[in-house]
Amino acid sequence: MPRERAATTASDDECIERLALLIEHQDQNKLHEIVALIARLTAPMQIESY
Question: Is the model's pTM score more than 0.85?
Fold first, then answer.
């Protein structure tokens, strides 16, 4: 399964762990995955704020 699709099915903790790993390794080829993970994590925050 592509990592972008995994971001939509992973738990918040799994997304945070993956995001931390990608940021630590500073792999610019994975920017699309970083964006997908950030979007996945911000969506629940927006819903909860209403």
Answer: no
